[in-house]
Design brief:
single chain, 86 residues, rod-shaped, 78% helix, mainly alpha
Length: 86
């Protein structure tokens, strides 16, 4: 977990039991679990969308660089014309 040890987790559970009471604690724990799952799913979705956009942008840059490196047909002379001039 993120820096929370067993003793801290046990202390939080004890405080929650005292504050909420034993009857509502399972309901609140279930709701907290659902919220946590929803938040984790949303975060993973956001990360994957962001990574996909970065990949798309990287691919666009690579394709643009490759298209700049390739000479066009108009700019090159045929090999036969060069040898005849020499």
């Amino acid at each position: 977990m993120s820096g929370i040890g067993f003793s801290e987790l046990l202390l939080l559970a004890l405080i929650a039991l005292l504050v909420v009471g034993p009857r509502r604690l399972p309901e609140i724990a279930r709701t907290a679990g659902q919220i946590s799952r929803t938040a984790r799913t949303a975060w993973q979705s956001l990360k994957s969308e962001f990574q996909a956009e970065l990949d798309r942008e990287h691919n666009r840059q690579v394709m643009a660089a490759e298209s700049e490196d390739e000479p066009t047909d108009d700019s090159q002379e045929p090999a036969n014309d060069r040898s005849e001039r020499s």
